[in-house]
Amino acid sequence: MALRLHNTLSGRKEPFTTLVPNVANVYVCGPTVYDYAHLGHARCYVVYDVLVRHLRETGYEVKFVRNYTDVDDKILKRAAERGESPRELSQRFIDAFAEDMARLHCLTPDVEPRVSEHIPEIIALIEKLVERGHAYVSDGDVYYSVESFPDYGKLSHRSLDQLKAGASERLSDTEQARKKHPADFVLWKGGVHEGATWESPFGPGRPGWHIECSAMSMKHLGETLDLHGGGLDLVFPHHENEVAQSEGATGRCFSNCWVHNGFVEVDKEKMSKSLGNFFTARELFERHEPEALRYFVMTVHYRAPLSLDWTLDDEGKVSGFPSIEEAERRVEYLYRTRLRLESIPEARIKEEEAPLPDELGKLRERLHTALDDDLNMPVALAHVADFLRATNELADRAATKKGTVARSAIEAAREGFELLGRWLGLGTETPSDVLDRIRARRARALGLSGEAIEQKIAERAEARAQRDFARADAIRDELAALGVELHDGPNGTTWTIP
Ligand SMILES: [Zn+2]
User: Fold this and answer.
1) Can you give the pTM of this predicted structure?
2) Which residues surround ligand 1, an ion (CB under 5 A)?
3) Beta bridge pairs of residue 6
4) Is residue 11 part of a domain?
């Protein structure tokens, strides 16, 4: 088995190779920190989190770098609107982003470089490009000359002629006049920008967007990366420009493999602020477990579009997200299964010879094969579902009269949950915490309070103690009509909202 990934550069699925055996240098473009993370970010970073976990789990030593773009027009504009310094504003959103990623169970990258802390490296890279004839100074700005780099367009599979036609329509006359070719792009923006101006050999100014990723990735990972990832919308121009900058400066291949994840679509359209169908990850976390969002992302192949559907209430407001609700049911099932496994009494576990079901014994092999095939997460989740079903069968058997289960099966199931946590980032929280939160949210959605339900359960217990079974049954029926199910057990009555 060996990992195969779809490489945007070749347009094909091909074996993943690294410069140094079993060491993978991975760079993923991070967020521009002027607002909260949305579903598009959640998708992108969950995908690369699974990829990095998969590489580690299959024997790679991974160095994972993901940047923060903290110098940008949108940051400057928003900071000015709010009367905040760009640095304060971006720090606030960096903290919020890190918090959201942790809730999605995304591992923290090994290095999280910020543009504002890499200005000397950026300037040095621009100087090198000027020296090598790939960049030119024009009226205080520095531009990259796309005609100086014959391979320009190789990543996005476009020709300079196509780009010329497209670019010239979008440019103002002043911008046109400064550039040699309409597709030339800015490396250094001359001028004074409030809160974001640095001195340079080309005069005061600040870096353009694309140069930062070339400078930061090469600083932290070397001149040639094993894998560069990002959203599909970054292929052109951002990643095309990164290739031109890095290869123009070093004369070496910048990244051997380019991976791009698909868009998030809302009601079949691309999610965007202008369409008014835009949800931050935090807004979704208020309605559902963050892990449900992670699971939802994993239900679709990373290269395919991810569609978010919703339902509306009578007033035309969004009332729910059926796909995330479904994902939350799967997450709930996962935790419930783990809880059942943990509750199997020691007395029911026997040192007996018994064949291990493949769903338990071959989980590792199955996850490995699924994810080696271009990170096929939906297939991996199907194996998870089989594993959970087999684990529930163990719990069912242990719950029958005199039923016993083999210790080898219990151990395989426990190991399976550890694998899911490490490899997929699923099921790592305390089961009762997650289940309680899901139940409380569902109760709230039905207009019920946990205390009121507990109160009814106490009344029912009292009625039963007094042998008033008609009253006890009436309370059960009353709760059932509200959507609450009661479960009587040896330790009392518990409730769920299915
Ligand atoms: Zn980037």
Assistant:
1) 0.94
2) 29, 213
3) 13
4) no
